[in-house]
Design brief:
alpha+beta; 10% strand; binds flavin mononucleotide
Length: 269
């Protein structure tokens, strides 16, 4: 029989860091040192990058007025304004388009009979991958320096406002907003639970789950998915509560409108 031995509970300082990380929203007000910032940025820029093209730009958000505004535009999250350091990761094809133009690429392509093109859906997804991989590398680098972080997904809302705030050209697209700061106190309580591995890791092909299996999804949180409960939203179980709090919430509707707008601008008609 072909037995696979899966290593369990291997530990080293890097794994410890990954396993113990948790999102930090309550910051000590001391600013990060320049060495802290340089180290986090340098680590981000060492992340794997498609074709070594670095299809992203990182904006350091230092202006308190911008932080205050982000705390509003990103679904009213006041802790953003108190983050000592904020990085906006953009998927960025603009720099390459400017470079292509400066290098006379289109003119040369015409001479060679090669059809020129502009960034399309595939380029956007690739640039988003690049930006997000750099962002998560920044998270882990910061964590290793004792600096906590929190992603803000709402940065993809309010496309028009964020474009104006950060002067974003056409072929850029917000991929991640990250707040950084040393935790104001040692976090108490358990870390946020994850779903059981069998729901997340499939072998060889995608697997769907029966209703009975799905009922077990929330067991690591100490309850069944469809167990009756009483929620302020009127939901009757934990999954309905998620549906109302996340999926049908106004921020999700705005996110879709805003992302559609940004994709239209990137891809063109
Ligand atoms: C794409 C993404 C968007 C997120 N957006 C927010 C956010 O807008 N506000 C917030 O407080 N946390 C946000 N988070 C943090 C998650 O809530 C957090 O990672 C999750 O609850 C698990 O907790 P942990 O990071 O402490 O393990 C976001 C995380 C990710 C990956």
């Amino acid at each position: 029989m072909n037995m696979t031995i899966e290593p369990k509970n291997l530990m080293n300082p890097t794994l410890e860091l990954i396993m113990n990380r948790r999102s930090t929203r309550n910051y000590d007000s001391t600013p990060l040192t320049q060495a802290d910032k340089d180290t986090v940025l340098q680590a981000a820029m060492r992340a794997p990058t498609a074709g070594a093209m670095m299809l992203y730009t990182i904006i350091e958000v230092e202006d308190q007025a911008l932080k205050d505004k982000l705390a509003e535009t990103c679904d009213h999250q006041p802790f953003i304004a108190r983050a000592p350091y904020i990085l906006l990761f953009l998927a960025d094809y603009q720099r390459w388009m400017d470079l292509y133009e400066a290098a006379g690429c289109e003119a040369r392509a015409a001479e060679l009979g090669i059809t020129p093109r502009t960034p399309a859906e595939g380029d956007l997804v690739l640039a988003l991958m690049d930006a997000l991989i750099a962002a998560q590398t920044a998270v882990l680098a910061a964590e290793s320096l004792g600096i906590g972080s929190c992603y803000i997904g709402d940065i993809v809302e309010k496309a028009e406002e964020h474009r104006a705030m950060f002067n974003l050209p056409r072929y850029t697209f917000p991929a991640a907003l990250l707040c950084f700061g040393r935790p104001a106190s040692i976090p108490k309580g358990p870390k946020v639970t994850r779903f059981a591995r069998k729901f997340i890791v499939h072998r060889d092909r995608y697997q769907s789950f029966t209703k009975d299996e799905l009922n077990q999804l929330h067991l690591p949180h100490g309850r069944h998915s469809f167990a009756p409960g009483d929620f302020a939203s009127g939901a009757q179980n934990v999954v309905q509560a998620n549906y109302f709090r996340k999926f049908t919430a106004s921020f999700s509707v705005e996110m879709t409108r805003s992302v559609r707008e940004m994709m239209k601008r990137w891809v063109g008609d």
